């Protein structure tokens, strides 16, 4: 079997290597980088884990990040990301190696300094992205088990967004922005429904799901059709909720910078009226 050539030693346990089959790879193994120099040859079996960063930009960012991160965390994060990839139905965007590792390293540093961040849309994240949330719970649990530091439940939500970003191949800023938009829409709804919202109800869960897919439809430019007759009926029968739905679509238009088809107001009205009826009981 052909041997790998060391391209760069990042630390004692992580190297960048030139693999005869895969090209440039990140190789991880206990002591794999100790005493190594550039162009040293090494048996592939010396790497306990190995992954490929095909993007030159991701390679450079990862190389810059690793010297700033504890070696134990690097091992844990790569194990976590491998598990996420194995459990995901879609291939992960390789930027997760940089983004999630950097995020967790910063979170651990904040905790050491006694600085805690509250996640304002934790519940919404759990409801909207249940599979990603479950994977995030695994990641946070693994870190606590291996490093002895509890990140707390708020951090699970942040990690879930990173996982969703990698699975859907969307920038984390966009994913975070959409979650924040949903949270703000929910706040507006709660202000306009007497008695507030029962956030543990099935109807509330349905509303969140509808908002998520409505935003995704808008971003795709996907047209939603309904008849003028239906819109007139809803506006006449449920004027308060129809007006609220219209306000919500205008908020979506402004935040997303994209037009929202009129039919979205009709479908939102149905969800809002169901919630209003339940909360009034």
From TrEMBL:
Alphabetized GO MF terms: RNA binding
Any GO BP annotation: positive regulation of DNA-templated transcription
Any Pfam family the entry gives: PRD
Key words of the record: Repeat
SUPFAM superfamilies with a match to the protein in the record: PTS-regulatory domain, PRD (SSF63520), SacY-like RNA-binding domain (SSF50151)
Stretch forming the signal peptide: none
InterPro entries: BglG_antiterminators, CAT_RNA-bd_dom, CAT_RNA-bd_dom_sf, PRD, PRD_sf, Transcrpt_antitermin_CS
Sequence ranges assigned to domain PRD in this UniProt record: 68-173, 174-281
PROSITE patterns: PRD_1, PRD_2
Family: Belongs to the transcriptional antiterminator BglG family. GlcT subfamily.
Name of this protein: PRD domain-containing protein
Species of provenance: Saccharibacillus brassicae
């Amino acid at each position: 079997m052909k041997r790998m050539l060391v391209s760069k030693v990042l630390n004692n346990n992580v190297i960048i290597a030139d693999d005869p089959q895969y090209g440039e790879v990140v190789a991880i193994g206990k002591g794999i980088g100790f005493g190594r120099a550039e162009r040293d040859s090494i048996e592939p079996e010396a790497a306990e884990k190995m992954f490929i960063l095909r993007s030159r930009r991701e390679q450079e960012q990862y190389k810059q990040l690793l010297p700033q991160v504890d070696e134990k965390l690097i091992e844990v994060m790569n194990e976590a990301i491998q598990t996420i990839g194995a459990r995901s139905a879609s291939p992960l965007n390789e930027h997760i190696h940089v983004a999630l590792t950097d995020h967790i390293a910063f979170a651990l540093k904040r905790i050491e300094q006694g600085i805690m961040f509250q996640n304002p849309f934790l519940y919404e994240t759990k409801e909207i992205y249940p599979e990603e949330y479950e994977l995030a719970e695994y990641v946070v649990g693994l870190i606590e088990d291996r490093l002895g530091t509890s990140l707390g439940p708020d951090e699970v939500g942040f990690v879930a967004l990173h996982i969703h970003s990698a699975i859907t191949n969307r920038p984390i800023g966009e994913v975070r922005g959409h979650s924040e938009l949903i949270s703000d829409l929910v706040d507006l709804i709660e202000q306009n429904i007497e008695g507030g919202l029962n956030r543990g109800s099935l109807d509330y869960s349905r509303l969140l799901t509808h908002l998520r897919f409505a935003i995704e439809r808008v971003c795709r430019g996907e047209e939603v059709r309904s008849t003028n007759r239906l819109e007139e009926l809803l506006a006449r029968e449920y004027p308060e909720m129809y007006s609220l739905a219209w306000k919500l679509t205008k908020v979506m238009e402004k935040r997303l910078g994209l037009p929202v088809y009129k039919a979205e107001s009709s479908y939102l009205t149905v969800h809002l009226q169901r919630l209003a009826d339940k909360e009034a009981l």
